[in-house]
Write a sequence for this structure.
């Protein structure tokens, strides 16, 4: 008999295993590296300007993709269409490059940041989403073979 505790533990374990992949770890580590070098007043020139913007959209899309795959679909067959990922990029650009520069001193309106948001979205669509979808599908197939 399956207890609630065992079910919650298996869902949590699955969420961690699917979420933490090489791309997600790269996004988080690069963001931490850029924030750390900014804090030390020793920014890395090219990376400081656009890497955090590049990884922001894939980071958000990946977390939403994993949660959506675990909650709403079975087998990892779901994938975001390109227009949804570009919509995420557009909304991110509007908020961080359109509205927030008028209300905060930290944000600046920069066209290259907008390009970085869209490049990150295209990267997620072309590379990372396929990687994660295959990973979820394999885990689902493994689970089906174990239950037989």
């Amino acid at each position: 008999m399956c207890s609630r505790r065992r079910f919650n533990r298996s869902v949590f374990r699955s969420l961690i295993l699917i979420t933490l992949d090489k791309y997600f770890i790269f996004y988080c580590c690069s963001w931490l590296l850029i924030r750390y070098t900014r804090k030390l007043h020793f920014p890395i020139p090219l990376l400081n300007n656009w890497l955090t913007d590049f990884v922001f959209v894939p980071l958000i899309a990946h977390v939403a993709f994993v949660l959506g795959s675990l909650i709403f679909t079975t087998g990892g067959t779901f994938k975001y269409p390109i227009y949804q990922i570009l919509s995420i990029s557009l909304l991110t650009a509007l908020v961080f490059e359109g509205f927030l520069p008028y209300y905060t001193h930290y944000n600046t309106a920069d066209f290259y940041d907008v390009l970085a948001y869209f490049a990150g979205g295209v990267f997620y669509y072309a590379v990372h989403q396929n990687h994660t979808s295959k990973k979820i599908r394999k885990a689902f197939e493994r689970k089906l073979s174990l239950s037989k």
